[in-house]
Amino acid sequence: MYQLLRRTLFLLPAETAHHFSMNCLKLLCAVPFIRNLLKKKFTQYSPVTTPVFSLPFSNRVGLGAGFDKNAKYLRELETLGFGFIEIGTVTPRPQAGNEKPRLFRLPKDKALINRMGFNNDGAEVIAGRLKKWVISSRQLAGANSKLQTPNPKLLIGGNIGKNKNTPNEEAWKDYEICFRALHPYVDFFVVNVSSPNTPGLRELQEKESLRKILTHLQSLDKTFALQKPVLLKIAPDLTFEQIDDVIDLAIEIKLDGLVASNTTISRHELQTPNSQLQIIGAGGLSGKPLQKRSTEIIQYIHQKTGGSIPIIGSGGIFTGGDAMEKLAAGASLVEIWTGFIYEGPLIVKRICKYLQSK
């Protein structure tokens, strides 16, 4: 069924298809009866027995940042069974991102290329949406508790970054603004310094730049009554020497976790013709071509740290077997994105059922 729908959606520009499909889902989920039917079809309740980052995840499958940049589709994504999602990347001020087209499909490779450029509505507006979500979720949880029906919470990660025109030496201020704005409403944070689509951003992955940003956020976190886990998302294009620097810093400052990995700038061994890749141009590659490298990084970090740093595994996850590969390498949770586009809305349930069977 979804394969037919996908063929139709793939006739549209990628970004247009994304907004069209999610807005259609939003209309359906606005009708409680239909939403309940969809939730029964797509949700596989499989709670994580051991809390990760001290948080109770309803399942191990999340949605990576960039899909719901502005926290507009939380109810809809919860209906599709996700255990957690990363909203954003959120920047202090709204920004339009790069010029369109900026999202491209590579069907032969089961991949996407994007150069979105942190397009989002800004921290203040997104915090307002999250506040409304938190209030409505609490009301629903209260109603369900009276009915004694399970209502596992969808956990929200706040993926935060800097504005394009903010100099790198001032970047820590942008991360602080986002951190303060979102802190009351998200369950954990993911610091994004690894997107290839904001000029100079990846320079912040250098050890001392990272130290300044992360330790400042950790200090800020202690000023709140309830502390929130702080994670770092890293690029798959780092050398193992650079990853060692990240590991050393993470252990030193007691970072709560890592997300491995972001998109890659590599175009190695793709089936898509080089002429088409040249027309598409720059951007971060995600999907199947990233699977092997992201798993290698997860395994390397897990072995180097003795499993002391929790990892969210991301990159090339399309099936339950792909998710198990990440978990076997040392990940505690997994995130999908490109696999969701190619496999459709049943992907979460299929992965959860597969993991439960093992």
Structure description:
The chain has 358 residues and is of the alpha/beta class. It has a single domain (2-357), classed as Aldolase class I (TIM Barrel, Alpha-Beta Barrel). It has 13 helices and 11 strands. It has helices spanning 2-9, 14-29, 32-42, 74-79, 123-147, 171-182, 207-221, 240-253, 274-280, 291-305, 320-329, 338-343, 347-357, and strands spanning 61-63, 84-90, 103-106, 111-114, 155-160, 188-192, 230-234, 257-260, 284-287, 311-314, 333-336. The strands form 2 sheets. It has an 8-stranded parallel β-barrel, surrounded by 5 helices. Strands 3-4-9 form a 3-stranded antiparallel beta sheet, with no helix packed on it. Strand 1 (61-63), helix 4 (74-79) and strand 2 (84-90) form a beta-alpha-beta unit. Helix 6 packs parallel to helix 7 (207-221) and helix 7 runs parallel beside helix 8 (240-253). The chain is globular. The two termini are 27 Å apart. The model has no long low-confidence stretch (mean pLDDT 95).
Give a quick summary of the entry:
Helices cover 44% and strands 14% of the residues.
The number of strands is 11
Task: Give me the side-by-side strand order of the main sheet.
Answer: 1-2-5-6-7-8-10-11
Order of helices and strands: HHHEHEEEHEHEHEHEHEHEHEHH
- CATH topology assignment: TIM Barrel
Q: Biggest sheet, open or closed, and with what strands and sense?
A: 8 strands, parallel, barrel
Average pLDDT for all residues: 95
Overall, the morphology is globular
The number of helices is: 13
CATH top level class name? Alpha Beta
What's the helical proportion of residues? Answer: 40-55%
Cα(first) to Cα(last) distance is 27 Å
Regions with little confidence, pLDDT below 50 for 5+ residues: none
* Domains (count): 1
- What structural class is derived from the secondary structure elements? alpha/beta
Percent of residues in β-strands: 5-15%
CATH superfamily: Aldolase class I
The radius of gyration computed from the alpha-carbon positions, rounded to a whole number of angstroms, is 19 Å
Give me the CATH architecture, please.
Alpha-Beta Barrel
